[in-house]
Design brief:
- The chain has 119 residues and is an alpha+beta fold.
- It has one domain: Orthogonal Bundle (Arc Repressor Mutant, subunit A), CATH 1.10.10.10.
- Strands 1-3-2 form a 3-stranded antiparallel sheet.
- The radius of gyration is 21 Å and the shape is elongated.
- The N and C termini lie far apart (57 Å).
- The relative contact order is 0.13.
Length: 119
């Protein structure tokens, strides 16, 4: 498993690109939407992460276009990026399942039981 200095940024970016290619601002917007506002990327953080994702072969540049005299680069999830996202999603699902089981067990232990009770 690849280790990242910013796993939330990495996984959020891969998740945002799972549906369709996006440019930088579109990625920032989609990550915020998908996280219900809990993750808010700044451009410097995003573009640093995108450079690492490109270097690792997890995303690729699908196309570039000029909009208002500025270059807009669209990023696409690669097959390797999709595999990593699927693996991490499964790992997180198992972790949530285990945590949920522990919480349920804790709740059952914490619930007082009435014995021979009064109706």
């Amino acid at each position: 498993m690849t280790r990242w200095s910013h796993p939330t940024v990495t996984l959020s970016s891969l998740d945002a690109l799972a549906a369709e290619p996006l440019h930088g601002y579109g990625l920032i917007t989609e990550v915020t939407r998908l996280s219900d506002g809990r993750v808010s990327l700044r451009p410097g953080t995003l573009y640093g992460a995108l450079d690492r994702l490109l270097d690792a072969g997890l995303v690729t540049v699908e196309r570039e276009e000029v909009v208002d005299s500025r270059l807009r680069r669209y990023y696409r999830l690669t097959e390797h990026g999709g595999d990593l996202l699927a693996d991490e999603t499964e790992r997180m699902r198992r972790n949530v399942e285990a945590a949920t089981a522990r919480l349920h067990a804790r709740t059952r232990r914490a619930t007082p039981r009435l014995s021979g009770g009064i109706a």
